[in-house]
Sequence to fold (434 residues):
Amino acid sequence: MLSKRVITAARSRAFLASRGAQYIAVSLSKGWKVADSHIRRSQFHSKTIKVPQMAESISEGTLRSWSKQVGDTVEADEEVATIETDKIDVSVNAPTAGKIVELLAKEEDTVSVGQDLFIIEPGEGGASAAPEEPKTDPEEPKDQQLDKTTPEPRAPSAAEKQSGSTPPKGSKESKKEVKEDSKPKEDKSKAPLPAAKVPGNRGETRVKMNRMRLRIAERLKESQNAAASLTTFNEIDMSSLMEMRKKYKDEVLKEHDVKLGFMSAFARACTLALKEIPAANASIEGDEIVYHDFVDLSVAVATPKGLVTPVVRNVEGMGFVEIEKEIAALGNKARDGKLSLEDMAGGTFTISNGGVFGSLYGTPIINLPQSAVLGMHAIKDKPVVVNGQIVIRPIMVVALTYDHRLLDGREAVTFLVKVRDYIEDPRKMLLALS
Fold:
């Protein structure tokens, strides 16, 4: 018969063997779970998307808004963020379908080209991370488990409750009461009188200038400081042009699906006048004057973010309808915020039509490096003398602001007179007669 000591040793070895197998099984189970998580994640490598190249002259912008947030799924080429520059708004799109994992910048932050912007997890709607299972420790033997319960606090006795209701003498509470009672009471009559209320609302609102507005302000001030600006005015009888527009506008709209306005006539008139006064179509570069053999017309368009000047290129080879189509297309793109840098680059002469807002007179500012800008204004009926008779005619005041470093007064006035003559008799533009 075996002794009790031998039996006890055998049982201990069997127990330890079973515990070791249990630990090995748990470790293998955990290892497979971790490996499975890494395998599933390796199928969908996260990608860090950077701020894209916007243009040669633009190196940074303001993160205007996030179209997507963390956890949102995106399709390929879907917009994720919008970056505002001093010229245009740039959309940052997702290069592939997936899920947004992390946003690396906040709205209104200044971001530069090449900076990390957000992290996307590619996949069909994005790969969701494997949920972590709660960690469970292997069961411990009952004889090795410790009592982890915390002893409950002892309930205070009746004597302690009674003593706790009133603080003992010499305690902090009693000292505090003595100090408060010893303080002299303040004289309410010496308190300052309340400030008199000002009638009406006195609130203020501060709004940060967007980049486009900052750039516009910078360029306008630069123009005032650099150019020797001078403005000349003239009046144009719009009777003939208004009659021509009234006669053909319905036919043009039906055949070409575009409205016939006054801008095309003024663009054509300016193009012909620029051929005769080439200095108005020139620019200064260093100590040289650059004369352009083409006319790229900048048209001022008002947008919610500020004034932009998209360019109609090679206007010298266009007719009225072609000019109207180009201006309409650029105007729609400007109001929708879809103008590209190419749409606004260059320009050799500018036309600004403040008349659509009711302006009667104004002095437009030169759009550097150009040398002149034509300002159109509202049409108003005025009494004028025609063949010795006083008659009422629709009159528009036009203004030409020019850089006196390039144009002399004689050339500027001659240019504006020629524009007036073309508008007052549009047939001259068709015949290209001076």
Observations:
- The two ends are 137 Å apart (CA to CA).
- The chain is about 35% helix and 25% strand.
- Residues 216 and 307 are 8 Å apart (CA to CA).
